[in-house]
Amino acid sequence: MFYVIGLGLSDEKDITLRGLEAIKGSTRVYLEAYTSILMIDKERLEGFYGKQVILADRDMVETQSDEILRSADTEDVSLLVVGDPFGATTHTDIILRARALRIPTRVIHNASIMNAAGACGLQLYNFGQTVSLVFFTDTWRPDSFYDRVQENVGLGMHTLLLLDIKVKEQSEENMARGRKIYEPPRYMSIPTAVEQLLSTEAVRGAGILAPTDTLAIALSRVGGGAEERIVAGTLQELLAAPPEVFGAPLHSLVLVGKRVHHLEVEYAETFALDPANWRRVATEVYGCALDG
């Protein structure tokens, strides 16, 4: 059996009992280590599971899946995924490869940012399309995400933005020369995300992202752990806030949609940098009727 097991978002104790049983019964256990990161090191996982954990980087998962799937038709092999297994298309792809080899597969789910984002007080059924925001470079500034945000805005829906991480990435020069030299890990911060959003708005000009009139909520390490941080404000307020306000990575950002309910506004107000301005924008710009 080939197991794809969600680890949740915080630490080694987020594993489900079903997932833990599968790990303990597996001959080999891999940890997918590039679409997201866990907030603890591999050694803590190994200590808790009583199993050696093999780190599986992008090359292994995408080009050496045969090694991961080796003998999974006759013994149990587990691939551990931060969050939920279906949070990235990479995991769908390896499951399809396993099925093509007639290897039995089983997915064991867990919490992911897709549902933990509800910790900010916005209702999950009011979210539209989730969007990934990648690091801009001097020569590459992809803006296709803007179209998805615009569609959500048009429907009044909230938008969850997943911010880029760069783990075990090569520079263009090292890649061209075939040198296995990797850049230090980088994680997109909330100010960088807001800067990219507003610079894209300036180019595209549809008027969907106004610095002083767009409400947003920054999420850091959500999942119920001690390091969870939630900060709400206008885009301008988030951009001006000191970076340490947002906590350690990983970060995500939610753009509040115009159909926001007053209970969502009141709940998120507890995280606001400026509660009075949060209520003012919600009332005057978003048309939300608030008590008091």
TrEMBL record:
Residues that coordinate or bind S-adenosyl-L-methionine: 9, 84, 87, 112-113, 163, 222, 251
Reaction catalysis annotation: 2-[(3S)-amino-3-carboxypropyl]-L-histidyl-[translation elongation factor 2] + 4 S-adenosyl-L-methionine = diphthine methyl ester-[translation elongation factor 2] + 4 S-adenosyl-L-homocysteine + 3 H(+)
Q: Pfam families annotated for this entry?
A: TP_methylase
Uppermost EC category: transferase
Q: Tell me the pathway.
A: Protein modification; peptidyl-diphthamide biosynthesis
Domain Tetrapyrrole methylase span(s) in chain numbering: 1-238
Q: Name one GO molecular function term.
A: diphthine methyl ester synthase activity
**Is the keyword Lipid biosynthesis in the record?**
no
Which UniProt keywords are listed?
Answer: Methylation, Methyltransferase, S-adenosyl-L-methionine, Transferase
The Enzyme Commission number assigned here is 2.1.1.314
Q: Which residues cross the membrane?
A: none
Q: Name one GO biological process term.
A: protein histidyl modification to diphthamide
Q: Quote the InterPro entries the UniProt record gives.
A: 4pyrrol_Mease (IPR000878), 4pyrrol_Methylase_sf (IPR035996), 4pyrrole_Mease_sub1 (IPR014777), 4pyrrole_Mease_sub2 (IPR014776), Dphthn_synthase (IPR004551)
Family matches, as SUPFAM superfamilies: Tetrapyrrole methylase (SSF53790)
Return the HAMAP family for the record: Diphthine_synth
Assembly: Homodimer.
The family this protein is said to belong to: Belongs to the diphthine synthase family. In the N-terminal section; belongs to the precorrin methyltransferase family.
NCBIfam families the record matches: dph5
What this chain does, per the record? Answer: S-adenosyl-L-methionine-dependent methyltransferase that catalyzes four methylations of the modified target histidine residue in translation elongation factor 2 (EF-2), to form an intermediate called diphthine methyl ester. The four successive methylation reactions represent the second step of diphthamide biosynthesis.
Q: What is this protein called?
A: diphthine methyl ester synthase
Q: Which organism is it from?
A: Hypholoma sublateritium (strain FD-334 SS-4)
